Amino acid sequence: MIRAQVFLVTALLFSTSAAVPAIAADATCVLPNASIPAGANTTDPNAPFFIDTAGLDLKTTPPTRDPHNANYPAATVLPDGQLPPINSDGNFIIGPTHRPSPETVVQANVPHGTVHTLIMTSTDSVIYRPGMVRDDMPGCRNSAVNSASTAPGDLSDLLVSASHAGSWSREVDVYVPAGYVAGTAASFIVFGDGGKHSFFNEQMLFNVLDNLIHAHKLPPMVAIGIGAGGQDAQGSERGREYDTVSGAYAEWVEQEVLPRVERAAHVRLTTNPDRRATMGFSSSAAAAFTMAWFRPDLYHRVLGYSPTMVNQQWPHDSSLPGGAWQYHDAWPGPARQNLTVSGNAVTPANGSNGAPLIPNAPRKPIRFWFEAGDRDLFYPIGPLADGMHDWTAANEDMARVLAAKGYHYQFIFSRNAGHVDEATEAQTMASALEWLWKGYPAPVH
């Protein structure tokens, strides 16, 4: 199934690459949206693509959400500066002050892990060759997405004609803990948006691992930071990898990344899914959850900051038209018949292709820590008034459906925090990692 999807995307890329016109260098940048899109349905919850504006302070950009919104699950309000206990599940409200924890900085007398770097390119890949490239205006990030249109009658289907086949090169940084014994099977955490040129501060994570492993609060583990494939959002290689709701990214990591890591860093990685974790930021946080959802035989532990549990999947998949939004909520578009194809026969199918995934699947062995800010992303792409691009609402609904299915999760609503908020990361990462690995006994030293 995954390989078939890869071939389909490959065919789409090659078929569009020759038809994309050049973009003038002096064109004016198309700025991202950050409020209610023009013409959005904000009044009729029974009509398609309803956007719920309850609890929004529209005087800020993006809007600030009220953590006590009646539409959000009930949460425990913690005193400013306090974090939830590492043995507790559920929903918590923190902030507005976010001071870094002491584990984020180098501490005296704590041994440091070593970092190995390797470069991967699309020419060496099977699953992601060719890559995906989008022609934005020079110097104007995401301009081709912000100026795109949607399919007639379907606000959830963004048309990005500026995307075509291309190549990618990425950095992979591998942290090996101090004292690793060659040949032993190491626990590990793999995270997206890695590499030295990422917006995420890898060194902070490595400091936290040094300090918590030394304090016996975490098991010794390898950390693998995989650079994104390039650009952002629909029509990009990063968006293709992180926002696709399938097992493709997990397969790529397993088949193409981890063997390279073992050779380059001279480590042996465990195959025990309870000793493997995933982590990410924004779309790579959605990918981290997707890796465990589709491959629970590989991963049980997931950590995410501002997970993109919204409709970012591209190319548009008619069998899952809401993308990652459908983990937690039904597709809010017009009702339509779900069909299956067998040979030349097309017949009605049971159920709906707009049904949410988590409520309709048996509980999986996934442990999930995640966070969203009160000023997280809100409909950043103007044409997508699709009812599925509110990051905070999406993660509140993730908390709701996870609780209903009995999952172990901890969800943090961070006040005075934006999208992938660096101050919140520095405050919470050590505690989040301790919670994430709860139940896995660290070896006695």
From TrEMBL:
Keyword terms: Signal
Segment forming the signal sequence: 1-24
Signal listed as a keyword: yes
Segments passing through the bilayer: none
Xref: Pfam families: Esterase
Keyword Signal among UniProt keywords: yes
Matching Gene3D superfamilies: alpha/beta hydrolase
Protein name, entry field: Enterochelin esterase-like enzyme
